[in-house]
Amino acid sequence: MTKLKVHTIESAPEDSKAQLDQSVKAFGMLPGLHAVLATSPGALEAYKTLHGLFENSSFDPEELTVVWQTINVEHECHYCVPAHTGIAHMMKVDPELTEALRNSTPMPTEKLQILHDFTLKVTRNRGHVTQEDLTAFYEKGYGERQVLDIILGLSQKVISNYTNHIANTPVDEAFQKFAWKPQNA
User: Fold this and answer.
1) Is the pTM of this model over 0.85?
2) What are phi and psi of 69, to 5 degrees?
3) N or C: fewer beta carbons within 10 Å in the chain?
């Protein structure tokens, strides 16, 4: 099992301490992912910047959750699936949606289903999608901005999911009640 250092504010490199202080102020705790990313101040800053940009993208809370969790589940991230389940609850996202995402079952609406399906294609195919994929996505009310916003969200998730795989980041106490394992685990 691989492992990377999980920092405290005191043990973190000097260039990461202010960012970790901001994390504690924002979340009321030091998220384990931030504590791991602190080893690289640039990686921590990039992750936090991408998170903020994606949160303020063209997607509403349900759509943000669909993109995040579709990628988290596809990447089998033991840390991000529970964390984003808790975040979805805080954002008042319908638990039926979060459970469908966690369990890879159909989305509650056609529009969220096409968002899920398109996000999955982008993730699995490393951005290679067909014109038919784009047309189906556009027919449900999405456009070019949402295509690019999915890529923005995927960029954020690659940093967190891959880091968590290598670091074996412990799930934060606040999210342990949402523990998750891949279906084939």
Assistant:
1) yes
2) -75, -30
3) N
- Quote the pLDDT of residue 36: 98
Task: Give the pLDDT confidence score for residue 183 in this predicted structure.
Answer: 83
> Residue 2 has what pLDDT?
79
User: Alpha-carbon distance 185 to 168, whole Å?
Assistant: 16
Angstrom CA distances, 14 to 9, 28, 38, 41, 74, stand at 9, 21, 9, 9, 35
Q: Name residue 47's amino acid.
A: Y
Domains in the chain: boundaries = 14-54, 59-178
Residues of the chain with pLDDT under 50: none
Distance from C-alpha of 22 to C-alpha of 121, rounded to nearest angstrom: 35
Domain 59-178 falls under CATH 1.20.1290.10: yes
User: Assign residue 28 a region: left if phi > 0, alpha if psi is -120 to 50, beta otherwise?
Assistant: left
Contact 169, 33 (CB under 8 A): yes
Of 10, 63, 29, whose CA–CA distance to 175 is shortest? Answer: 29
